[in-house]
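Field log, afternoon session.

UNIT: design team B
ACTIVITY: writing a sequence onto a fixed backbone
BACKBONE:
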Protein backbone atom coordinates (compact mmCIF):
# COMPACT_ATOMS: atom_id res chain seq x y z
CA UNK A 1 0.00 0.00 0.00
CA UNK A 2 1.15 3.53 -0.55
CA UNK A 3 2.74 5.55 2.22
CA UNK A 4 0.40 8.21 3.52
CA UNK A 5 2.78 10.94 2.37
CA UNK A 6 2.50 9.83 -1.25
CA UNK A 7 -1.31 9.54 -1.26
CA UNK A 8 -3.42 12.63 -1.45
CA UNK A 9 -6.33 13.90 -3.40
CA UNK A 10 -7.16 17.11 -5.15
CA UNK A 11 -9.82 17.74 -2.52
CA UNK A 12 -7.20 17.99 0.25
CA UNK A 13 -6.77 21.55 1.39
CA UNK A 14 -3.25 22.91 1.26
CA UNK A 15 -1.82 22.90 4.74
CA UNK A 16 -0.77 26.19 6.29
CA UNK A 17 2.59 26.98 4.76
CA UNK A 18 4.28 28.23 7.94
CA UNK A 19 3.42 24.98 9.66
CA UNK A 20 4.97 23.08 6.78
CA UNK A 21 8.09 25.18 6.72
CA UNK A 22 8.77 24.35 10.36
CA UNK A 23 7.87 20.71 10.06
CA UNK A 24 10.71 18.16 9.97
CA UNK A 25 11.35 16.49 6.62
CA UNK A 26 9.35 13.33 6.27
CA UNK A 27 11.90 10.93 4.87
CA UNK A 28 10.84 7.73 6.55
CA UNK A 29 9.26 6.15 3.53
CA UNK A 30 9.30 2.39 3.46
CA UNK A 31 9.92 1.72 -0.22
CA UNK A 32 8.68 -1.86 0.01
CA UNK A 33 5.24 -0.75 1.07
CA UNK A 34 4.55 1.45 -1.95
CA UNK A 35 2.39 0.27 -4.80
CA UNK A 36 4.55 -0.85 -7.71
CA UNK A 37 2.03 -2.12 -10.19
CA UNK A 38 -1.29 -1.02 -11.61
CA UNK A 39 -2.15 1.77 -13.95
CA UNK A 40 0.78 4.14 -14.54
CA UNK A 41 0.41 7.60 -16.08
CA UNK A 42 3.64 9.33 -16.99
CA UNK A 43 3.22 13.02 -17.72
CA UNK A 44 6.06 14.89 -19.44
CA UNK A 45 5.54 18.59 -18.82
CA UNK A 46 7.47 20.70 -21.31
CA UNK A 47 6.93 17.95 -23.88
CA UNK A 48 7.67 20.36 -26.74
CA UNK A 49 11.17 21.05 -25.42
CA UNK A 50 14.75 19.97 -25.94
CA UNK A 51 15.21 17.71 -22.94
CA UNK A 52 11.92 15.93 -23.56
CA UNK A 53 12.77 14.99 -27.14
CA UNK A 54 16.44 14.22 -26.57
CA UNK A 55 16.35 12.44 -23.22
CA UNK A 56 12.96 11.89 -21.58
CA UNK A 57 10.99 10.27 -24.42
CA UNK A 58 13.96 8.18 -25.63
CA UNK A 59 14.48 6.89 -22.07
CA UNK A 60 10.78 6.00 -21.82
CA UNK A 61 10.99 4.23 -25.17
CA UNK A 62 13.98 2.15 -24.07
CA UNK A 63 12.15 1.15 -20.90
CA UNK A 64 9.13 0.24 -23.02
CA UNK A 65 11.22 -1.89 -25.37
CA UNK A 66 12.68 -3.80 -22.44
CA UNK A 67 9.25 -4.49 -20.97
CA UNK A 68 9.53 -2.18 -17.96
CA UNK A 69 6.59 -0.13 -19.22
CA UNK A 70 3.77 -2.25 -20.58
CA UNK A 71 0.84 -1.32 -22.82
CA UNK A 72 -1.66 -2.77 -20.36
CA UNK A 73 -0.53 -0.44 -17.57
CA UNK A 74 1.10 2.64 -19.00
CA UNK A 75 -0.02 5.76 -20.75
CA UNK A 76 2.21 8.71 -21.50
CA UNK A 77 1.00 12.30 -21.63
CA UNK A 78 2.88 15.23 -23.11
CA UNK A 79 1.89 18.64 -21.77
CA UNK A 80 3.05 22.09 -22.91
CA UNK A 81 1.69 25.43 -24.12
CA UNK A 82 2.46 24.84 -27.81
CA UNK A 83 -0.67 24.19 -29.80
CA UNK A 84 0.29 20.91 -31.39
CA UNK A 85 -1.53 17.63 -31.97
CA UNK A 86 -0.72 14.12 -30.74
CA UNK A 87 0.65 13.40 -34.21
CA UNK A 88 2.85 16.51 -34.20
CA UNK A 89 4.43 15.46 -30.92
CA UNK A 90 4.95 11.91 -32.17
CA UNK A 91 6.61 13.27 -35.33
CA UNK A 92 8.85 15.57 -33.31
CA UNK A 93 10.21 12.86 -31.09
CA UNK A 94 10.27 9.87 -33.48
CA UNK A 95 13.70 10.51 -34.95
CA UNK A 96 15.23 10.68 -31.45
CA UNK A 97 13.72 7.38 -30.36
CA UNK A 98 15.49 4.82 -32.48
CA UNK A 99 17.95 6.58 -34.75
CA UNK A 100 19.39 4.24 -37.33
CA UNK A 101 17.20 1.26 -36.40
CA UNK A 102 15.25 -0.13 -39.34
CA UNK A 103 14.20 -3.69 -38.43
CA UNK A 104 10.50 -4.60 -38.57
CA UNK A 105 10.62 -5.48 -34.89
CA UNK A 106 11.93 -2.08 -33.90
CA UNK A 107 9.49 -0.19 -36.11
CA UNK A 108 6.64 -2.21 -34.60
CA UNK A 109 7.69 -1.39 -31.07
CA UNK A 110 8.17 2.23 -32.05
CA UNK A 111 4.64 2.47 -33.41
CA UNK A 112 3.21 0.71 -30.32
CA UNK A 113 5.08 3.13 -28.10
CA UNK A 114 3.97 6.20 -30.04
CA UNK A 115 0.35 5.09 -29.68
CA UNK A 116 0.72 5.33 -25.91
CA UNK A 117 1.38 9.06 -26.16
CA UNK A 118 -1.31 11.70 -25.90
CA UNK A 119 -0.66 15.43 -26.00
CA UNK A 120 -2.53 18.02 -23.94
CA UNK A 121 -1.97 21.72 -24.48
CA UNK A 122 -2.37 24.24 -21.69
CA UNK A 123 -0.66 26.98 -19.77
CA UNK A 124 1.57 26.44 -16.74
CA UNK A 125 -0.29 28.73 -14.38
CA UNK A 126 -4.02 28.22 -15.02
CA UNK A 127 -6.20 25.39 -13.88
CA UNK A 128 -7.99 24.86 -17.22
CA UNK A 129 -5.18 22.95 -18.90
CA UNK A 130 -4.43 20.90 -15.81
CA UNK A 131 -8.09 19.99 -15.32
CA UNK A 132 -8.12 18.82 -18.93
CA UNK A 133 -4.96 16.84 -18.27
CA UNK A 134 -6.53 15.32 -15.17
CA UNK A 135 -9.58 14.30 -17.21
CA UNK A 136 -7.36 12.58 -19.76
CA UNK A 137 -5.41 10.77 -17.07
CA UNK A 138 -8.61 9.71 -15.32
CA UNK A 139 -10.06 8.39 -18.60
CA UNK A 140 -6.96 6.30 -19.05
CA UNK A 141 -7.19 5.06 -15.47
CA UNK A 142 -10.82 4.11 -15.94
CA UNK A 143 -10.12 2.06 -19.05
CA UNK A 144 -6.96 0.44 -17.75
CA UNK A 145 -7.65 0.08 -14.13
CA UNK A 146 -11.30 0.13 -13.21
CA UNK A 147 -11.04 -3.21 -11.40
CA UNK A 148 -8.20 -2.42 -9.08
CA UNK A 149 -9.01 1.21 -8.37
CA UNK A 150 -5.33 1.99 -8.03
CA UNK A 151 -3.19 4.37 -10.00
CA UNK A 152 0.28 5.78 -10.17
CA UNK A 153 0.97 9.25 -11.51
CA UNK A 154 4.45 10.43 -12.39
CA UNK A 155 4.94 14.06 -13.40
CA UNK A 156 8.26 14.82 -15.09
CA UNK A 157 9.00 18.55 -15.15
CA UNK A 158 11.11 18.97 -18.31
CA UNK A 159 10.68 22.70 -17.89
CA UNK A 160 12.64 25.80 -16.95
CA UNK A 161 12.81 25.96 -13.14
CA UNK A 162 11.07 29.36 -13.20
CA UNK A 163 7.78 27.56 -13.76
CA UNK A 164 8.29 24.75 -11.20
CA UNK A 165 6.31 26.53 -8.45
CA UNK A 166 3.23 27.27 -10.56
CA UNK A 167 3.27 23.88 -12.28
CA UNK A 168 3.68 22.03 -8.98
CA UNK A 169 0.80 23.99 -7.53
CA UNK A 170 -1.40 23.12 -10.50
CA UNK A 171 -0.52 19.43 -10.18
CA UNK A 172 -1.26 19.54 -6.46
CA UNK A 173 -4.56 21.31 -7.04
CA UNK A 174 -5.85 19.50 -10.13
CA UNK A 175 -4.00 16.29 -10.86
CA UNK A 176 -3.27 14.24 -7.75
CA UNK A 177 -3.93 10.53 -7.71
CA UNK A 178 -7.47 10.05 -6.43
CA UNK A 179 -7.86 6.31 -6.52
CA UNK A 180 -9.56 4.80 -3.54
CA UNK A 181 -7.24 1.81 -3.20
CA UNK A 182 -3.92 3.50 -3.09
CA UNK A 183 -1.32 4.45 -5.63
CA UNK A 184 0.91 7.48 -5.61
CA UNK A 185 1.79 10.84 -7.15
CA UNK A 186 5.44 11.74 -7.69
CA UNK A 187 7.19 14.63 -9.36
CA UNK A 188 10.58 14.65 -11.03
CA UNK A 189 12.42 17.96 -11.21
CA UNK A 190 15.43 18.76 -13.31
CA UNK A 191 18.48 20.76 -12.40
CA UNK A 192 19.30 23.62 -11.99
CA UNK A 193 17.44 23.72 -8.68
CA UNK A 194 17.85 27.44 -8.16
CA UNK A 195 20.75 29.79 -8.86
CA UNK A 196 22.19 30.11 -5.38
CA UNK A 197 21.47 29.09 -1.80
CA UNK A 198 18.64 31.57 -1.32
CA UNK A 199 16.77 30.88 -4.55
CA UNK A 200 17.25 27.13 -4.14
CA UNK A 201 15.90 27.23 -0.60
CA UNK A 202 12.93 29.27 -1.80
CA UNK A 203 12.24 26.72 -4.52
CA UNK A 204 12.62 23.85 -2.06
CA UNK A 205 10.24 25.55 0.38
CA UNK A 206 7.66 26.11 -2.37
CA UNK A 207 7.83 22.47 -3.50
CA UNK A 208 7.95 21.32 0.12
CA UNK A 209 4.63 23.02 0.84
CA UNK A 210 3.00 21.01 -1.91
CA UNK A 211 4.76 17.65 -1.82
CA UNK A 212 6.52 15.54 0.77
CA UNK A 213 10.17 14.67 0.30
CA UNK A 214 9.40 11.04 -0.73
CA UNK A 215 7.31 12.40 -3.60
CA UNK A 216 10.05 14.67 -4.97
CA UNK A 217 12.75 13.24 -7.23
CA UNK A 218 15.51 15.80 -7.90
CA UNK A 219 17.25 14.28 -10.85
CA UNK A 220 20.97 14.60 -11.50
CA UNK A 221 21.61 12.41 -14.48
CA UNK A 222 25.26 11.83 -13.56
CA UNK A 223 23.96 9.66 -10.72
CA UNK A 224 22.46 7.38 -13.35
CA UNK A 225 25.71 6.75 -15.21
CA UNK A 226 27.03 3.19 -15.04
CA UNK A 227 30.45 4.04 -13.64
CA UNK A 228 29.09 6.54 -11.17
CA UNK A 229 26.78 3.84 -9.86
CA UNK A 230 29.80 1.55 -9.67
CA UNK A 231 31.66 3.82 -7.26
CA UNK A 232 30.12 2.44 -4.09
CA UNK A 233 30.78 -1.14 -5.18
CA UNK A 234 34.34 -0.38 -6.15
CA UNK A 235 35.13 1.39 -2.93
CA UNK A 236 33.35 -0.79 -0.44
CA UNK A 237 33.37 -4.26 -2.02
CA UNK A 238 37.10 -4.45 -2.78
CA UNK A 239 39.51 -5.15 -0.02
CA UNK A 240 42.51 -3.60 -1.73
CA UNK A 241 40.97 -0.15 -1.96
CA UNK A 242 39.99 0.03 1.71
CA UNK A 243 43.43 0.75 3.20
CA UNK A 244 44.56 2.97 0.30
CA UNK A 245 41.62 5.33 -0.01
CA UNK A 246 42.82 8.13 2.23
CA UNK A 247 45.24 11.02 2.80
CA UNK A 248 48.12 8.67 3.65
CA UNK A 249 48.21 7.29 0.12
CA UNK A 250 46.38 9.63 -2.21
CA UNK A 251 48.07 12.81 -3.41
CA UNK A 252 45.11 14.39 -5.22
CA UNK A 253 41.85 13.55 -6.97
CA UNK A 254 40.58 15.12 -10.17
CA UNK A 255 36.99 14.98 -11.35
CA UNK A 256 36.88 16.22 -14.90
CA UNK A 257 34.16 17.04 -17.44
CA UNK A 258 35.12 18.18 -20.94
CA UNK A 259 32.98 18.89 -23.95
CA UNK A 260 34.37 19.54 -27.41
CA UNK A 261 31.46 21.77 -28.40
CA UNK A 262 30.14 25.08 -27.15
CA UNK A 263 26.73 26.07 -25.85
CA UNK A 264 25.07 25.17 -29.19
CA UNK A 265 21.62 26.71 -29.18
CA UNK A 266 21.43 26.79 -25.37
CA UNK A 267 23.38 30.04 -25.02
CA UNK A 268 20.47 31.95 -23.48
CA UNK A 269 20.07 29.39 -20.72
CA UNK A 270 23.79 28.90 -20.24
CA UNK A 271 24.61 32.58 -19.98
CA UNK A 272 22.32 32.87 -16.98
CA UNK A 273 23.95 29.93 -15.23
CA UNK A 274 27.54 29.32 -16.34
CA UNK A 275 29.65 26.20 -16.05
CA UNK A 276 29.75 26.04 -12.24
CA UNK A 277 25.95 25.97 -11.91
CA UNK A 278 25.53 23.84 -15.04
CA UNK A 279 28.04 21.10 -14.26
CA UNK A 280 30.22 21.54 -11.17
CA UNK A 281 27.75 22.38 -8.39
CA UNK A 282 25.65 19.36 -9.31
CA UNK A 283 27.15 16.63 -11.52
CA UNK A 284 30.79 16.84 -10.40
CA UNK A 285 29.95 17.53 -6.78
CA UNK A 286 27.70 14.46 -6.67
CA UNK A 287 30.59 12.40 -8.02
CA UNK A 288 32.89 13.93 -5.39
CA UNK A 289 30.45 12.82 -2.68
CA UNK A 290 30.56 9.21 -3.83
CA UNK A 291 34.34 9.26 -4.11
CA UNK A 292 34.88 10.85 -0.70
CA UNK A 293 32.04 9.65 1.53
CA UNK A 294 32.41 7.16 4.36
CA UNK A 295 30.87 3.70 4.12
CA UNK A 296 27.12 3.94 4.64
CA UNK A 297 25.46 1.80 7.28
CA UNK A 298 23.58 -0.01 4.50
CA UNK A 299 22.48 0.55 0.93
CA UNK A 300 19.23 2.18 2.04
CA UNK A 301 18.84 5.50 0.21
CA UNK A 302 18.77 7.47 3.46
CA UNK A 303 21.95 5.87 4.75
CA UNK A 304 23.79 6.71 1.53
CA UNK A 305 22.45 10.23 1.38
CA UNK A 306 23.32 10.82 5.05
CA UNK A 307 26.97 10.10 4.23
CA UNK A 308 26.92 12.36 1.16
CA UNK A 309 25.60 15.25 3.23
CA UNK A 310 28.42 14.79 5.76
CA UNK A 311 31.04 15.12 3.03
CA UNK A 312 29.43 18.25 1.64
CA UNK A 313 29.27 19.78 5.08
CA UNK A 314 33.00 19.10 5.53
CA UNK A 315 34.05 21.03 2.43
CA UNK A 316 36.22 24.03 3.27
CA UNK A 317 35.12 27.45 1.84
CA UNK A 318 36.61 28.00 -1.61
CA UNK A 319 39.23 30.75 -1.95
CA UNK A 320 39.64 32.83 -5.12
CA UNK A 321 43.24 31.63 -5.55
CA UNK A 322 41.90 28.08 -5.84
CA UNK A 323 39.82 28.94 -8.89
CA UNK A 324 40.60 29.55 -12.57
CA UNK A 325 37.73 30.56 -14.80
CA UNK A 326 37.67 30.69 -18.58
CA UNK A 327 35.42 31.76 -21.42
CA UNK A 328 35.96 30.47 -24.95
CA UNK A 329 36.53 32.95 -27.72
CA UNK A 330 33.39 33.40 -29.77
CA UNK A 331 31.03 32.55 -26.88
CA UNK A 332 29.42 36.01 -27.00
CA UNK A 333 28.81 35.74 -30.78
CA UNK A 334 25.65 33.81 -29.88
CA UNK A 335 22.83 36.38 -30.24
CA UNK A 336 21.19 35.08 -27.04
CA UNK A 337 24.35 35.85 -25.02
CA UNK A 338 25.06 39.38 -23.91
CA UNK A 339 28.10 40.99 -25.59
CA UNK A 340 29.87 41.78 -22.34
CA UNK A 341 28.99 38.52 -20.60
CA UNK A 342 31.50 37.35 -17.98
CA UNK A 343 29.84 33.95 -17.65
CA UNK A 344 32.48 31.22 -17.33
CA UNK A 345 32.34 28.35 -19.82
CA UNK A 346 35.32 26.74 -18.09
CA UNK A 347 36.30 26.39 -14.45
CA UNK A 348 38.90 24.59 -12.40
CA UNK A 349 38.17 24.65 -8.68
CA UNK A 350 40.44 23.13 -6.04
CA UNK A 351 38.46 21.98 -3.04
CA UNK A 352 39.45 20.61 0.36
CA UNK A 353 37.57 18.33 2.71
CA UNK A 354 38.19 18.91 6.38
CA UNK A 355 37.97 15.45 7.88
CA UNK A 356 40.16 12.64 9.09
CA UNK A 357 40.26 10.82 5.76
CA UNK A 358 40.91 13.73 3.42
CA UNK A 359 42.66 16.55 5.26
CA UNK A 360 45.28 17.98 2.88
CA UNK A 361 44.14 16.13 -0.25
CA UNK A 362 43.10 18.51 -3.04
CA UNK A 363 39.95 17.57 -4.94
CA UNK A 364 40.25 19.27 -8.31
CA UNK A 365 36.93 19.76 -10.10
CA UNK A 366 37.30 20.83 -13.70
CA UNK A 367 34.64 21.42 -16.35
CA UNK A 368 34.69 23.15 -19.68
CA UNK A 369 32.87 23.62 -22.95
CA UNK A 370 34.49 23.97 -26.39
CA UNK A 371 37.65 22.12 -25.32
CA UNK A 372 39.89 19.74 -27.23
CA UNK A 373 38.08 16.55 -26.21
CA UNK A 374 34.85 15.14 -24.88
CA UNK A 375 35.17 13.03 -21.78
CA UNK A 376 34.35 12.72 -18.11
CA UNK A 377 36.61 10.94 -15.68
CA UNK A 378 37.81 10.59 -12.12
CA UNK A 379 41.58 10.47 -11.69
CA UNK A 380 42.96 9.37 -8.34
CA UNK A 381 46.69 10.09 -8.16
CA UNK A 382 48.68 8.26 -5.51
CA UNK A 383 51.70 9.58 -3.64
CA UNK A 384 55.24 8.62 -4.61
CA UNK A 385 56.64 5.33 -3.35
CA UNK A 386 58.83 6.15 -0.34
CA UNK A 387 62.47 5.10 -0.71
CA UNK A 388 62.16 4.49 -4.45
CA UNK A 389 65.01 2.16 -5.54
CA UNK A 390 64.02 2.08 -9.22
CA UNK A 391 64.11 5.80 -9.88
CA UNK A 392 60.65 5.30 -11.34
CA UNK A 393 59.24 8.48 -9.84
CA UNK A 394 60.30 10.42 -12.88
CA UNK A 395 58.12 8.21 -15.08
CA UNK A 396 54.94 8.97 -13.24
CA UNK A 397 52.83 8.15 -10.23
CA UNK A 398 50.31 5.39 -9.81
CA UNK A 399 46.90 6.53 -10.89
CA UNK A 400 43.50 4.92 -10.74
CA UNK A 401 41.29 6.32 -13.47
CA UNK A 402 37.55 5.81 -13.78
CA UNK A 403 36.44 6.83 -17.25
CA UNK A 404 32.75 7.72 -17.00
CA UNK A 405 32.38 8.44 -20.71
CA UNK A 406 32.92 7.85 -23.55
CA UNK A 407 34.33 4.28 -23.63
CA UNK A 408 33.50 3.40 -20.03
CA UNK A 409 36.55 1.95 -18.36
CA UNK A 410 38.67 1.86 -15.29
CA UNK A 411 42.38 1.44 -15.42
CA UNK A 412 45.19 1.46 -12.95
CA UNK A 413 48.34 3.11 -14.14
CA UNK A 414 51.31 1.35 -12.63
CA UNK A 415 55.04 0.87 -12.99
CA UNK A 416 56.26 -2.48 -14.31
CA UNK A 417 59.55 -3.95 -15.45
CA UNK A 418 60.11 -3.21 -19.09
CA UNK A 419 60.03 -6.63 -20.78
CA UNK A 420 63.52 -7.65 -21.86
CA UNK A 421 66.97 -8.30 -20.49
CA UNK A 422 67.44 -4.98 -18.76
CA UNK A 423 66.08 -4.13 -15.35
CA UNK A 424 64.35 -0.94 -16.34
CA UNK A 425 60.82 0.26 -15.65
CA UNK A 426 57.95 1.61 -17.72
CA UNK A 427 54.41 2.81 -17.14
CA UNK A 428 51.66 0.36 -18.02
CA UNK A 429 48.10 -0.30 -16.88
CA UNK A 430 45.63 -2.86 -15.62
CA UNK A 431 42.68 -2.12 -17.81
CA UNK A 432 39.00 -2.95 -17.42
CA UNK A 433 37.41 -1.55 -20.54
CA UNK A 434 33.72 -2.22 -20.64
CA UNK A 435 33.45 -2.52 -24.42
CA UNK A 436 35.92 -5.39 -24.28
CA UNK A 437 34.99 -7.10 -21.02
CA UNK A 438 31.20 -6.79 -21.36
CA UNK A 439 30.79 -7.08 -25.10
CA UNK A 440 27.19 -8.24 -25.08
CA UNK A 441 25.96 -5.81 -22.49
CA UNK A 442 24.16 -2.65 -23.52
CA UNK A 443 24.86 -0.03 -20.90
CA UNK A 444 21.59 1.77 -20.09
CA UNK A 445 21.30 5.50 -20.54
CA UNK A 446 21.38 7.43 -17.27
CA UNK A 447 17.86 8.81 -17.75
CA UNK A 448 16.47 5.35 -18.44
CA UNK A 449 17.78 4.01 -15.16
CA UNK A 450 16.69 7.02 -13.15
CA UNK A 451 13.16 7.13 -14.57
CA UNK A 452 12.79 3.46 -13.70
CA UNK A 453 13.89 4.31 -10.15
CA UNK A 454 11.19 6.98 -9.92
CA UNK A 455 8.56 4.43 -10.92
CA UNK A 456 9.96 1.94 -8.41
CA UNK A 457 10.13 4.56 -5.68
CA UNK A 458 13.86 4.29 -5.11
CA UNK A 459 15.40 7.63 -4.16
CA UNK A 460 18.96 6.42 -3.70
CA UNK A 461 20.20 8.13 -6.85
CA UNK A 462 18.31 11.38 -6.34
CA UNK A 463 19.38 14.51 -4.51
CA UNK A 464 17.83 15.03 -1.09
CA UNK A 465 16.82 18.51 0.01
CA UNK A 466 19.55 18.85 2.66
CA UNK A 467 22.16 17.61 0.16
CA UNK A 468 21.10 20.28 -2.26
CA UNK A 469 21.31 22.94 0.42
CA UNK A 470 24.81 21.84 1.42
CA UNK A 471 25.89 21.88 -2.24
CA UNK A 472 24.70 25.46 -2.69
CA UNK A 473 26.36 26.50 0.55
CA UNK A 474 29.70 25.49 -0.91
CA UNK A 475 29.41 27.40 -4.18
CA UNK A 476 27.19 30.39 -3.43
CA UNK A 477 29.89 32.76 -2.10
CA UNK A 478 32.11 32.09 -5.15
CA UNK A 479 29.17 32.40 -7.55
CA UNK A 480 28.20 35.74 -6.06
CA UNK A 481 31.76 37.00 -6.48
CA UNK A 482 31.66 35.91 -10.13
CA UNK A 483 28.22 37.48 -10.66
CA UNK A 484 29.53 40.73 -9.14
CA UNK A 485 32.49 40.74 -11.53
CA UNK A 486 35.05 40.23 -8.75
CA UNK A 487 36.39 37.03 -10.34
CA UNK A 488 36.61 37.04 -14.10
CA UNK A 489 37.13 34.41 -16.78
CA UNK A 490 40.28 34.23 -18.89
CA UNK A 491 39.72 33.91 -22.61
CA UNK A 492 40.72 30.59 -24.24
CA UNK A 493 40.73 29.22 -27.75
CA UNK A 494 37.93 26.84 -28.67
CA UNK A 495 39.45 23.39 -29.16
CA UNK A 496 42.22 24.00 -26.61
CA UNK A 497 42.77 22.60 -23.09
CA UNK A 498 41.32 25.78 -21.61
CA UNK A 499 43.37 28.57 -20.01
CA UNK A 500 47.00 27.69 -19.32
CA UNK A 501 46.49 29.11 -15.81
CA UNK A 502 44.26 26.11 -15.05
CA UNK A 503 47.16 23.71 -15.64
CA UNK A 504 49.36 25.89 -13.44
CA UNK A 505 46.75 25.68 -10.68
CA UNK A 506 46.70 21.91 -11.11
CA UNK A 507 50.42 21.59 -10.58
CA UNK A 508 50.30 24.04 -7.69
CA UNK A 509 47.72 21.72 -6.13
CA UNK A 510 50.24 18.88 -6.42
CA UNK A 511 49.11 17.04 -9.52
CA UNK A 512 52.04 15.54 -11.44
CA UNK A 513 51.39 14.85 -15.06
CA UNK A 514 52.85 11.67 -16.53
CA UNK A 515 54.72 12.62 -19.66
CA UNK A 516 55.03 10.24 -22.57
CA UNK A 517 52.20 7.97 -21.49
CA UNK A 518 48.74 7.89 -23.03
CA UNK A 519 46.07 5.36 -22.25
CA UNK A 520 44.46 4.11 -25.46
CA UNK A 521 41.07 2.44 -25.10
CA UNK A 522 41.43 -1.09 -26.50
CA UNK A 523 39.69 -1.81 -29.78
CA UNK A 524 37.98 -5.12 -30.43
N1 LIG B 1 18.23 20.19 -22.67
C1 LIG B 1 19.13 19.53 -21.98
O1 LIG B 1 20.03 18.88 -22.53
C2 LIG B 1 19.09 19.53 -20.49
C3 LIG B 1 18.11 20.23 -19.80
N2 LIG B 1 18.06 20.17 -18.44
C4 LIG B 1 17.02 20.88 -17.71
O2 LIG B 1 15.74 20.39 -18.11
C5 LIG B 1 14.78 21.42 -18.10
C6 LIG B 1 14.18 21.57 -19.47
O3 LIG B 1 15.20 21.85 -20.38
P1 LIG B 1 14.97 22.09 -21.95
O4 LIG B 1 14.06 21.06 -22.48
O5 LIG B 1 16.29 22.26 -22.54
O6 LIG B 1 14.23 23.48 -21.93
P2 LIG B 1 13.41 24.20 -23.09
O7 LIG B 1 13.91 25.60 -23.14
O8 LIG B 1 13.40 23.42 -24.34
O9 LIG B 1 11.96 24.27 -22.44
C7 LIG B 1 11.07 23.17 -22.36
C8 LIG B 1 9.67 23.66 -22.69
O10 LIG B 1 9.26 24.57 -21.68
C9 LIG B 1 8.49 25.62 -22.24
N3 LIG B 1 9.16 26.88 -21.92
C10 LIG B 1 10.34 27.33 -22.36
N4 LIG B 1 10.65 28.52 -21.83
C11 LIG B 1 9.62 28.83 -21.01
C12 LIG B 1 9.33 29.94 -20.18
N5 LIG B 1 10.18 30.95 -20.05
N6 LIG B 1 8.19 29.92 -19.48
C13 LIG B 1 7.34 28.89 -19.58
N7 LIG B 1 7.58 27.84 -20.38
C14 LIG B 1 8.68 27.80 -21.08
C15 LIG B 1 8.46 25.38 -23.74
O11 LIG B 1 7.24 24.72 -24.04
P3 LIG B 1 5.91 25.48 -24.49
O12 LIG B 1 6.27 26.86 -24.93
O13 LIG B 1 5.36 24.62 -25.59
O14 LIG B 1 5.07 25.45 -23.28
C16 LIG B 1 9.59 24.42 -24.00
O15 LIG B 1 9.33 23.57 -25.07
C17 LIG B 1 15.50 22.65 -17.61
O16 LIG B 1 15.37 22.73 -16.23
C18 LIG B 1 16.95 22.37 -17.99
O17 LIG B 1 17.86 23.07 -17.22
C19 LIG B 1 18.93 19.42 -17.71
C20 LIG B 1 19.92 18.71 -18.35
C21 LIG B 1 20.11 18.72 -19.77
O1 LIG C 1 23.35 18.71 -17.50
C1 LIG C 1 24.02 18.91 -18.48
O2 LIG C 1 24.72 17.88 -18.99
C2 LIG C 1 25.17 17.91 -20.33
C3 LIG C 1 26.23 16.80 -20.44
O3 LIG C 1 25.67 15.57 -20.15
P1 LIG C 1 26.42 14.24 -20.62
O4 LIG C 1 25.62 13.15 -20.03
O5 LIG C 1 26.43 14.26 -22.11
O6 LIG C 1 27.80 14.30 -20.07
C4 LIG C 1 25.74 19.25 -20.72
O7 LIG C 1 26.01 19.27 -22.10
C5 LIG C 1 24.73 20.33 -20.38
O8 LIG C 1 25.33 21.60 -20.59
C6 LIG C 1 24.28 20.25 -18.95
O9 LIG C 1 23.17 21.11 -18.75
Amino acid sequence: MPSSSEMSSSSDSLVDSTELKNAPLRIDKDVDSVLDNGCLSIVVLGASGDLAKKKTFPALFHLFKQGFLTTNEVHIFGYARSKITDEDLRDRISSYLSPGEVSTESSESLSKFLKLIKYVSGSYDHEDGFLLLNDEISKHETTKNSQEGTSRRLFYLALPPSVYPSVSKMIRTCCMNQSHLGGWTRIVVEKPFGKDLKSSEELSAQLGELFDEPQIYRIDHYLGKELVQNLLVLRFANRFFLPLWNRDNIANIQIVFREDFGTEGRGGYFDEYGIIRDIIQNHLLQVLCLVAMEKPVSLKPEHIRDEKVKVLQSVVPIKDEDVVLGQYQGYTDDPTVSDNSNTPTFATVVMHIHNERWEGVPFILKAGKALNSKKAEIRVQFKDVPGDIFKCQKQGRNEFVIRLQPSEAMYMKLTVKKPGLNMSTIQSELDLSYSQRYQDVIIPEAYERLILDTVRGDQQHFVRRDELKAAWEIFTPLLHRIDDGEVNPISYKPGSRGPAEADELLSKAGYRQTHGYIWIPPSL
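LOG NOTE: Residues 267-292 form the longest helix (26 residues).
NEXT ACTIVITY: expression trials, pending approval
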